[in-house]
Design a protein that fits this description.
The chain is of the alpha/beta class and 418 residues long. 34% of the residues lie in helices and 20% in strands. It is built from 15 helices and 15 strands. α6 links the parallel β5 and β6. α5 runs parallel beside α6 and α11 runs antiparallel to α12. The protein binds nicotinamide-adenine-dinucleotide. The site of nicotinamide-adenine-dinucleotide has 24 residues, from α1.
Length: 418
């Protein structure tokens, strides 16, 4: 197990949690079987586990429902991908480290800062690599922003204004009705969604946050805001035809966000959606869910070099992309994932890069596959660092946890260097 993979054979991967994300990353194994070979799967959902095992030709003996059984078998693998829900990261991560596997860990690392630190400490002691899936670091648009700043052509950063527009459909699907709706089972949305944004902001500023403050609340998706005549489910609701949050409209009419519905053998997608609307999580009225994550949040940060950074997480918008405006001493850079405009103050130079052809493309415009490629490269050549180490990621997580503390206590938090 501890023998490092060489270029002469594929890296052997075991997957824990074969859902949406795992299937994205494992596309790499479909395309490059000589570089990545799935050797085991752990998945509690029967349909998903069987589909994954079938897809990659895994024997019954290498398909597990419980990860403890997988670890007990001491399966020969180089790495484990942990892409379970957020409340099931810490325990399998610790067990994987103790067993000597390298880990690619979906964000957020864990549910508490001390757990994040413990994973990092154990990995250091055991000599295994833990990479965290901050895919924006591989996305051509975000990489370009960093390159432009690093070129020095526009001077030094003065301030950054960043909006993470979650978009109504994603918001109601994931953060009101779906699996990221409750802090206890997942995380505050700042971690669940915006740890990527904070990581990006630290990556481009290359600075340390020394003070921060945050505001936000669950302003709208609460029972007391339910309009008169609304029902508990969209299929039995008098105001559904006019409701902007209708699950019937989202899933049945527009067919958006249905990729994660498991279609059982013998059923059609139509029938599956209707079952979901009648009895599932995703058929519930947005005002009658058991959600508690906030629906809007602001974080203001002051960095060590006096740079100021603001992050705004917004659900009430049709936009489902990130918008960033960076003001520098000699110019400015602003973009929305489709276009990226750069302007230099002196001389009037202006240029717009067009990313519209890759916006919204699968696998985060290829970034998911680049990330896997980078991790495999780092395993094969330990001299070559992986782009998002757990230590980098812990700093962005720390900011999210501290922003939550600020929001709850109404105070400005001073961040000592770790
Ligand atoms: N990097 C990104 O851009 C990105 C995007 C979305 C989600 N995520 C993160 O990826 C992780 C998974 O999210 P997802 O969207 O793939 O969710 P998902 O529900 O599609 O997949 C998770 C899978 O884990 C399985 N599972 C649950 N408990 C398990 C257990 N104890 N053992 C084995 N399997 C178990 C579930 O049945 C499910 O199939 C989360 O941490 C989420 O925050 C990252």
């Amino acid at each position: 197990m501890k023998q490092e993979p060489t270029a002469s054979r594929p890296v052997r991967i075991a997957v824990i949690g074969a859902g949406n994300r795992a299937n994205k990353y494992l596309e790499y194994a479909r395309r490059c079987p000589d570089r990545l070979q799935p050797v085991a799967v752990v998945e509690v959902n029967d349909l998903r586990r069987r589909a994954f095992a079938r897809d990659f030709g895994l024997p019954e003996s290498r398909s597990y429902v419980h990860y403890d059984d997988f670890f007990a078998d001491r399966v020969e693998a180089d790495m484990v991908l942990i892409s379970t829900p957020e409340n099931a990261h810490f325990d399998p991560a610790v067990k994987a480290i103790d067993a000597g596997y390298h880990i690619l860990l979906e964000k957020p690392i864990a549910q508490h800062l001390d757990q994040c630190r413990e994973i990092a400490r154990r990995a250091r002691e055991r000599g295994v690599l833990v990479g965290v899936c901050h895919v924006l670091r591989y996305h051509p648009y975000f990489v370009k922003i960093r390159e432009l700043i690093a070129s020095g052509e526009f001077g030094r950063i003065v301030s950054v204004e960043h909006t993470a527009a979650v978009g109504l459909d994603r918001a109601t699907h994931s953060y009101v009705r779906g699996i990221f709706r409750r802090v206890r089972e997942s995380n505050p949305i700042l971690l669940a969604k915006c740890c990527h944004d904070i990581d990006f902001l630290l990556w481009i500023t290359g600075s340390h946050c020394r003070r921060l403050t945050s505001f936000g609340s669950l302003r709208w998706f609460r029972a007391e805001n339910a309009p008169a005549g609304s029902g508990e489910r969209c299929l039995a609701c008098a105001i559904e035809p006019d409701c902007p949050f209708s699950a019937r409209d989202l899933y049945y009419v527009r067919r958006d966000w249905v990729a994660n519905f498991d279609v059982p053998p013998g059923k059609t997608l139509d029938e599956t959606i209707l079952d979901e609307l009648r009895t599932g999580l995703y058929g519930r009225c947005v005002y009658h869910c058991d959600n508690d994550v906030v629906d809007h949040q602001l974080v203001a940060m002051e960095m060590d070099d006096e740079v100021t950074v603001s992050l705004s997480m917004e659900m009430f918008t049709n936009d489902d992309f990130r918008k960033t405006h960076i003001r520098l001493t000699e110019g400015e850079i602003d973009g929305d994932e489709r276009t990226l405009r750069v302007r230099r103050f002196r001389g009037g130079y202006e240029h717009t890069y067009d990313f519209s052809d890759i916006a919204g493309q699968p696998f985060h415009a290829g970034a998911d596959l680049q990330l896997i490629e980078d991790f495999i490269g780092a395993l094969r050549n330990p001299e070559r660092p992986f782009l998002t180490t757990i230590d980098d990621s812990i700093e962005s997580h720390r900011i999210c946890y501290e922003a939550e503390r600020s929001r709850h206590t109404g105070t400005t938090i001073r961040m000592e260097r770790d």
